Structures are given as C-alpha cells and as structure tokens.
C-alpha cells in the first residue's frame, strides 16, 4: 500500500493544562515552535512521507487549528501587493501541505477514543497516527521506515525510543524481542505509564503509529484504563497478542513539546540548527551559558 493511499490522523483534542494560562484560549498544538505552530511540523512530516490526506481530531475551542490551515485571502493580498513573496510562500505553505479534514472528539475520553473517532474517515484502510507532542526532526527518517515495515508485513508498527528508566513512567513501555531486521524489533507486550520497577524495558512508545483498520473494532470494546481513559496502548497490547506488533527503534532527533522545559529546549535546538537563525542564536547561546 503506497503512502498516498494511507491517511494520517493527528489527535489534537487535549486540554493542554500543563501550559495554562497560555492554552486557556489557544490550543497547545498552536503554540509556536520558533515561527510555526507545533502541529504544522507534524503535518509537514506526514506530507514529506507521501501522505496526502490528513485528519485532525479536534476538541472544543480548537478552531484556531482549522483556521491556520485555511487560506487567508486578505493577508495573502497584502503580502502580494508588498512584493513580500517569501512571507507569502510561508503563509500559503500550510494550506498546500495536504488535503486536511477535521472531526470533533466531543468528550475527552483518551487517545484511544480520539483515534476511534477517525473510523468514518479512514474506512477499511491502514492509517498512520502522529501525536503533536512529539516533533521528529525533518532530517531524520522515521515515518517512511514505519510505512515500509507495515507494507512489507501488514503488521501494526509503533515507534520506540530508549529513554532514561527514571522517565519510563511518562510513556507506554514495550517488551521487545530482536528480529532479523536491524532497527526493528518485535513488540511482545505493552504497559501504559508503568512504575520504573514494573516496566518491561526502557523502550518507550513515542507518538508515531501505523495501524490496521481492525484497531477500530478493538477500541470500540476497550474499557477505560489508566486515568479512566480509553488507552490506545490497551488496544495495541491486544494486537501484540493476536496479530503481532513491530517496533521501529528511533535514534534520531526528537523534540518533546508536551512539557514546558522540553518545549523551551525544542525551540532553542531548532532555532540553533536553522540556517537563517543559527548564526545569531549559537554565539548568544554560548555567551548566555557562560554566565550561568
């Protein structure tokens, strides 16, 4: 199955309470990472992997997200009349990335429920799920590798990353076995946000998945789990037992924007690496660090 036939689903219905009061009126997915909202990086990643159809799952007061991906004729006209074609191109880029659709989750019942809400749009095809808290550096390959592994095997594929064991309680943790393919493991079990002593490994699920359509039937009968929410990890655990789940181990650059400190780190890292900003940011960063 080619990437052009696979649809991407981006859950964006969370309340973003860790970023209050900034997220009181602005969705956390619209918080800027340098000069683009976090969610645009995620849509760009899907588009770069060849995915042309993107569904964003919205919650209440998330209209800013749909507005961002709409065209703004009055702004475009002003920029065109000024001859500011560079900014005009950046404004239009978000509209031209993909065919973007929206559906509301209604109630915040967890990630599993948000994914289930994509059922009518996705239909009977496999699909990718990309979480907006995890930004993957565009220079590092992940989603393409996952899509290729799914196309080759037909199995569910999740992205894994080794984390400090002290941090594993913040993630879904995977029990794994090696395979013949370098960088790809077999996932034999999954636990959502386990205590350090209960974790099967320090391999954490990061926010990228390629899922078969049968996951919708599983989610429909999955009872609330950790935190009283319908957990996608619980459905993945069933798939690991019945069908098999593969994990692509990611060792590239990942920016966690779901935590305030990591969000600041992400902005600094991305700005320092950019050709247009890095020459000014890096020397300042060194001077600032020397004063600490």
UniProtKB/TrEMBL annotation:
Domain of life: Bacteria
EC number: 2.7.7.9
Keyword annotations: Nucleotidyltransferase, Transferase
Chemical reaction(s) catalysed: alpha-D-glucose 1-phosphate + UTP + H(+) = UDP-alpha-D-glucose + diphosphate
Pfam families: NTP_transferase
InterPro entries linked: GalU_uridylyltTrfase_bac/arc, NTP_transferase_dom, Nucleotide-diphossugar_trans
Record GO terms (molecular function): UTP:glucose-1-phosphate uridylyltransferase activity
Gene3D superfamilies in alphabetical order: Spore Coat Polysaccharide Biosynthesis Protein SpsA, Chain A
Family listed: Belongs to the UDPGP type 2 family.
Protein name: UTP--glucose-1-phosphate uridylyltransferase
Species of provenance: Microbacterium invictum
Organism phylogeny: Bacteria, Bacillati, Actinomycetota, Actinomycetes, Micrococcales
């Amino acid at each position: 199955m080619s990437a052009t036939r696979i649809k991407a689903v981006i859950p964006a219905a969370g309340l973003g309470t860790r970023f209050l009061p900034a997220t009181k009126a602005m969705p956390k997915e619209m918080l800027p990472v340098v000069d683009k909202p976090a969610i645009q990086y995620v849509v760009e990643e899907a588009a770069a992997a060849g995915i042309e159809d993107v569904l964003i799952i919205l919650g209440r007061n998330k209209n800013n997200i749909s507005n961002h991906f709409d065209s703004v004729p009055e702004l475009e006209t002003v920029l065109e009349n000024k001859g500011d074609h560079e900014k005009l191109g950046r404004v239009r880029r978000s509209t031209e990335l993909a065919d973007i659709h929206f559906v509301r989750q209604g109630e915040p019942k967890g990630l599993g429920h948000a994914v289930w809400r994509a059922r009518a749009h996705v239909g009977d095809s496999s699909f990718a799920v990309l979480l907006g808290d995890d930004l993957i550096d565009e220079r590092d390959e992940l989603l393409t590798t996952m899509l290729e592994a799914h196309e080759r095997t037909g199995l569910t594929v999740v992205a894994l990353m080794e984390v400090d064991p002290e941090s594993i309680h913040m993630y879904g943790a995977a029990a794994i076995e090696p395979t013949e393919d370098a960088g790809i493991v077999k996932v034999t079990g999954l636990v959502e946000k386990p205590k350090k002593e209960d974790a099967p490994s320090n391999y954490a699920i990061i926010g990228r998945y390629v899922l078969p359509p049968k996951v919708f039937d599983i989610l429909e009968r999955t009872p609330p789990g950790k935190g009283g929410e319908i957990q996608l990890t619980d459905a993945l655990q069933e798939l690991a037992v019945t069908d098999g789940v593969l994990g692509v181990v990611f060792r590239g650059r990942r920016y966690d924007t779901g935590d305030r400190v990591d969000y600041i780190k992400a902005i600094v890292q991305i700005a320092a690496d950019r050709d247009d900003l890095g020459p000014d940011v890096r020397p300042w960063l060194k001077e600032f660090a020397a004063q600490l």
